[in-house]
């Protein structure tokens, strides 16, 4: 059953859309607050299809993510009782407990690490507000971390460019199904 190739083709087509940069920024913004899909899924194809714009796309992504992170921080700071219900409902409770223990142990350093962590970034932005982390250090550290991550991702994708995109397309079904199998196995092991 071949489904990933069509999805890949559509994603590459969308990455060239005239409003792609806006949607990339929007996804990055809402991902830092509540959206479950990281902006990398847009940043990578956009950087591969337009390598000359990759650094610009990375900067848009970082700035939007930090602005979204500030909203997440405010939610944690002012409305945690409301947000706590959604953390449990969306299945982020274990991630939340990890983030809290990391904040207690390492403080501001956690915000830097969070930019690269597989734990959803929104967990850290909200947690920073709940823990009443100093706001300016939070914003500065978040920007450095997110910019470093997205610049690295964009640069690697741009480096591969259209040639890598074509090679990736040839293997996309194997990669896609491998990820599905790994996700199912991880779910079965971790539940």
Automatic annotation (TrEMBL):
Residues 37-154 form the VTT domain. The chain crosses the membrane at residues 20-37, 57-80, 100-121, 133-154, 174-190. InterPro entries: DedA_domain, VTT_dom. Pfam families: VTT_dom. Keywords: Membrane, Transmembrane, Transmembrane helix. Coiled coil: none annotated. Signal peptide: none annotated. GO terms for cellular component: plasma membrane. This is VTT domain-containing protein. It comes from Caviibacterium pharyngocola.
């Amino acid at each position: 059953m071949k489904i990933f190739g069509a999805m890949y083709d559509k994603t590459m087509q969308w990455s060239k859309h005239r409003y792609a940069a806006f949607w990339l920024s929007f996804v990055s913004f809402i991902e830092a607050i509540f959206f479950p899909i990281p902006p990398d899924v847009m940043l990578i194809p956009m950087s591969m299809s337009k390598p000359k714009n990759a650094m610009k796309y990375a900067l848009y992504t970082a700035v939007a993510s930090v602005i979204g992170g500030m909203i997440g921080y405010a939610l944690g700071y002012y409305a945690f009782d409301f947000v706590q219900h959604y953390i449990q409902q969306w299945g982020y409770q274990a991630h939340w407990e990890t983030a809290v223990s990391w904040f207690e142990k390492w403080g501001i350093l956690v915000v830097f690490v969070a930019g690269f962590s597989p734990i959803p970034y929104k967990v850290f932005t909200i947690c920073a507000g709940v823990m009443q982390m100093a706001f300016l250090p939070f914003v500065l550290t978040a920007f450095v971390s997110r910019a470093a991550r997205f610049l690295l991702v964009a640069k690697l994708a741009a480096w591969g460019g259209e040639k890598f995109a074509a090679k990736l397309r040839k293997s996309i079904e194997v990669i896609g199904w491998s990820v599905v199998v790994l996700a199912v196995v991880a779910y079965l092991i971790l539940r």
